[in-house]
Design goal:
The protein is built from 13 helices and 9 strands. The protein is of the alpha/beta class. The protein folds into 3 domains: 125 residues, Beta Polymerase, domain 2 (2-Layer Sandwich), CATH 3.30.460.40; 78 residues, no CATH class; 61 residues, no CATH class.
Length: 293
């Protein structure tokens, strides 16, 4: 198990007490949760990050129960974004309660718990999110101010031979090109470590690419860039007439959820769950001569 001592040193006594109290309260109530963030990343890569946030992952069906328990502990809870994230505040400290991802793709389901990993966090026996699901959820974070590709490369370098590659392929499903992009870059970042990714995985994905290239391009004007960045492809949706791949029925999010998630771009500080500081005027304008949809 990872040594979390150095990470704990950056936390205040109040923060450590709050996080422990939250975890033990959920455990006593029998509500399942997993710890992610810096604690899971350190376990899988050996890289310590001195962050002061705390992430727990729960099944969507358990969100209300989690809030009820944390409310009884004196926290102030809120469903910050109904499609993926809630928060529990205690003074200046808070816990992120995560049940999906900002793009609506990486939904927490039972398999997260089935493949979770034992760990000691803040002197508390807990379970961590699996490395495969960490890769899956991080792979889509490609904002201007945050790109999690290095995190994925470090997980692959440290854990590649141990990963459940079949499950990882199933997780990405139709989004396999995203995984392929990270695996191709991994071989560039670590040329001497290319064997950490099995040959059959790359062969499978290259076969899919060859089959795709041999087929006609799909019809319709669909932009899947919004799955990778909630801001950088808004011009495609708002001005150029592309369909938003996040939106139901083809995607996982309602129009209202997308609107709320987009509006928060200008409300959150840089680095906060993929948001940035700035205004709508910072968004890209169409090239000269381009027509708005």
């Amino acid at each position: 198990m990872a040594d979390t001592g150095s990470r704990n040193d950056v936390l205040s006594t109040e923060a450590k007490a709050f996080y422990r109290h939250a975890m033990t309260g959920l455990q006593k109530a029998g509500v399942p949760f997993l710890v992610g963030g810096a604690y899971a990343f350190a376990r899988y890569t050996g890289i310590e990050r001195h962050t002061k946030d705390f992430d727990i992952f729960v099944h969507r069906r358990d969100v209300d129960a989690v809030f009820e328990i944390l409310d009884t502990q004196g926290c102030r809870t809120e469903l910050t974004f109904p499609h993926w994230l809630g928060k529990a505040y205690c003074g200046s400290e808070f816990v992120d309660v995560i049940f999906s991802s900002g793009n609506g793709v990486a939904e927490v389901d039972d398999a997260w718990f089935e493949h979770s990993v034992e760990e000691i966090v803040l002197d508390t026996a807990v379970r961590l999110i699996p490395p495969e699901e960490m890769i899956w959820s991080k792979a889509f974070i490609m904002e201007r101010e945050r790109y999690d590709g290095a995190d994925i490369a470090h997980v692959l370098r440290a854990r590649g031979p141990e990963l459940d590659w079949q499950r990882l392929l199933r997780r990405f499903d139709d989004n396999w090109r995203v995984l392929f992009s990270h695996l191709a870059l991994f071989g560039y970042v670590y040329p001497s470590e290319r064997d950490k990714v099995p040959d059959w995985v790359l062969g499978e994905l290259m076969g899919r690419l060859e089959a795709e290239l041999a087929a006609p391009a799909p019809g319709g004007r669909l932009c899947q860039g919004t799955i990778l960045s909630r801001e950088q492809y808004l011009v495609d949706i708002e001005r150029w007439g592309y369909r938003d791949a996040r939106r139901l029925p083809g995607g996982t999010m309602t129009a209202a959820e997308i609107q709320r998630w987009t509006a928060a771009i200008d409300e959150e500080p840089a680095g906060s769950n993929g948001a940035r500081t700035g205004s709508a005027s910072d968004r890209p304008a169409p090239p000269d001569g381009a027509e708005a949809a």
